[in-house]
Amino acid sequence: MSMQLAPWTVGVPLFFAALLVALGEKLPRLVADLIALLAGGVTAAACALLFRAARSGPVVYWFGGIRPRSGVSLGIDFAIDRMGAGLATLAAVLVICALLFSARYFEKPQASFQALLLAFLAGICGFALTGDLFDLFVFFELMSTAAFGLCAYKSREVGPLQGAINFATTNTAGAFLTLTGISLLYARTGALNFAQMARSMGPHDALVLVGFALVCTGFLVKAAVVPFHFWLADAHAAAPTPACIIFSGAMVQAGLYAVARLHGALFAAPLPGFRPALLGLGIATCATGALLCYAQRHLKRLLAFSTVSHSGAILCGIALVDPSAYAGAALYVVGHGCVKAALFLCAGMILHRLGSVDEVMLHGRGVRLPWLGALFALGGLLLAGAPPTALFLGDSMLDHALKGHAVARAALALSSVVTGAAVLRACGRVFLGWGPREPDAPGGGETDEEPETDRGPIPWSMWLPAVLLLALAFASGLVSREAAGRDAARMLDPHAFAAQILDGAPPALPAPPPEEPLGPGLLHAAGTVVAAAALAGLTLGRKRLPQAVRGAVASVWSPAAAALRALHTGEVGDQVAWLTLGAAILCGALALR
Amino acid sequence: MTDLLSVLPYAVAGWLLLWGLYGIVTSKNLVHLVICLVVMQSATYVLLLAIGYKSGAVAPVYADMPPGTPAVDPLVQALMLTDIVVEATVAALLLALAVQAHERGGSLDPARLARLKG
To answer: Tell me, what CATH number does B84's domain have?
Structure first.
């Protein structure tokens, strides 16, 4: 019964998006807002029901009722597992929050902005639920194109235009590589259904390996993995705040989900080069994102680079191809999505109330906004891994799963500490007036952006989604790690998946991976939170440190930050050059093993 | 000769893909950049058609063919059409952004538009 809901997750938001474009400017603002919220709400409910229905195994929906006959599929299906349905639900919740936040955010009614948000939602729902490789690409492009439009929304200024052009060019170039990879895999298998492809994959020779590496390249561009990450900060600095929360909270993670899902559905055992290649990229992403995050004074770019760093942490989990690591990565995505979205909304409220997002310019100007400061600080603590969120659960599961990979564990801890510390540092400077009135790192381009709103008191429609997201983050700490482990184990069993899709076999009931006690995780979290607070405190109070210590730190940090930032020229040609290099590395790592 | 002809489309696809990438990397003009992106996309058309091509087969229209007549793969052609639709949208969007960039920034050179750095 519930599988009949599957097409609605794409149809409802697309229909209302079209309706809003057609009628939006004529409708009273309140009516347009309510229609958009209704569409988001119905989609979220459908995704949540599918998530519930998939608890005992994937739910399969065949479009037009064209089912496979004698093990051969000619139709197109949605194969809905809990990971995909969970991602779609998360995206729908974030879109609802973005719609709420944008209700009073823009001066004029913005039906086209709402329509783009809904089109994005349709794209990501289809992307997360589909069981067909080419549909995956089409939904990927639908999601991307809506995202380009959202990013270019403030197209009156040069900065946002540059961000949108970089975003669209790099992601489209990546998408062409994905399509090339899809073509190569189709050439081998003659099929596009995941299950059918897994059955007719044949030997894992260079054709399959290069095809899979190219498919992954496009998704890793979306996931902002080093060296594909250059577009992300530009896009976040350019996009209106409500769009940032869905970029950082769901879109980036959708790229990672696709890599995990495809590898799990197509290959029974990890491809030989998969683990080292992705682990290496994940570690590099964690470290680069964290350092660049700490070097920022533009609050939205700071949060954007923190997303890069966390994306690396999730990638490390995916690289392991192991049920408990996949479960940890999934919980990490949920917790991170809620916390990061709430932080972006706080940044949006700061921009609305104080007219700037430049941490140094804002020094002490937030002292009269204690509640906003408290919300921002709470987000920072949760980002550093404070319990009881799903981010904390996921972090401790990943930390445990990465036992034996000391460098990756260190990178994950660095990511939690430094990104949490960056938020706490900004919080201390803006809301408490602590620390020096000077940047913490040299160099950089624009440090501020134009206010997106008429400045004024913060309306409830901005408070509500931020508070709601933090409440959801706390509630997400209650999810069952056992269920997540079972879902992850299902995702990694292509034989059972293919048998269910093609032969109508009942879904497998795998044993969940052993559950680890939370004690070490709590200790780890306490360590990262204290370290984050200490790092933020030391940065702000650096004038009181002995001159020798300051000089020693500055002599390492300043050139390192300057060199790393000098690579981020903001020019699209450089970004695509890095993309080409990354694609070559990935193809080489997978095909030459 | 037939060997050369069967490899040629794949070589052309690879050439177009790399040429498009090279063009984007070195581009000094946003319109040129969008065209290079379209060139890159053409590589996927050639690749898809090459994969679906079967020597000596007819077009996949079965109206007046007996069943069992070998035909080229119709699926890749459908994929290609979808691909064209999707990417035409992206190209149009990028060109619109290029027009905006020229109006606001007074230049089409990506290097002169770069405000967001580090």
So the answer is: 1.10.287.3510
Token code pair at residue A116 = 């783009």
Distance between CA atoms of A52 and A49, rounded to whole angstroms? 5
Residues of A in contact with B105 (CB under 8 A): 158, 161
One DSSP character per residue, B28-97 reads SSHHHHHHHHHHHHHHHHHHHHHHH--TT-B-S--TTS-TT--B--HHHHHHHHHHHHHHHHHHHHHHHH
- Give every CB contact of residue A350 below 8 A, 6+ residues apart in sequence: A299, A356, A357, A362, A366, A372, A376, A430
Contact A172 B87 (CB under 8 A): yes
Give CA separation, A119 vs A14, A141, A163, A264, A470, in Å.
6, 11, 21, 28, 26
Tokens of A172: 């489209």
Residue B116 lies inside a defined structural domain of this protein:
no
Count: domains in chain B: 1
Q: Do B117 and A568 touch (CB under 8 A)?
A: yes
The answer to which of A104-113, A347-356, A387-396 has the lowest mean pLDDT is A104-113
Which of A29-33, A95-99, A279-283, A474-478 has the lowest average pLDDT? A29-33
Please write the tens of the pLDDT for every residue from A284-297.
999 999 999 999 99
Tell me the whole-structure pTM to 2 decimals: 0.95
pLDDT digits (tens, 9 = 90+) for A401-446: 999 999 999 999 999 999 999 999 999 999 998 988 888 888 666 7
Range(s) of the domain holding residue B91: 2-55+70-105
- For residue A576, the number of C-alpha atoms closer than 13 Å in the C-beta half-sphere is 33
Smallest Cβ–Cβ distance between A159 and the set B94, B111, B116 belongs to B116
pLDDT band at B60; cut points 50, 70, 90: confident
ipTM associated with this complex: 0.95
Calculate Rg over the CA atoms of chain B.
20
Rounded Cα–Cα distance for residues A161 and A449 (Å): 13
Which of B24, B75, B104 comes nearest A173 by C-beta?
A: B24
User: Do residues A19 and A32 make contact, with C-beta atoms less than 8 angstroms apart?
Assistant: no
B17 is a domain residue: yes
| Cα A460 from Cα A100, distance rounded (Å) | 10
Distance from CA of B1 to the nearest CA of A (A): 23
Alpha-carbon span A348 to A455, nearest angstrom: 11
Q: Is B89 on the interface with A (CB under 8 A)?
A: yes
What Rg do the C-alpha atoms of chain A give, in angstroms?
A: 23
Domain membership of residue B114 (yes or no) is: no
Confidence of residue A156 (pLDDT cuts 50, 70, 90): confident
As given in the structure block, the two tokens for residue B104 are 């606001």
In a domain, B29, yes or no: yes
Residues counted in chain A: 593
Residues A297-355 pLDDT 10s: 999 999 999 999 999 999 999 999 999 999 999 999 999 999 999 999 999 999 999 98
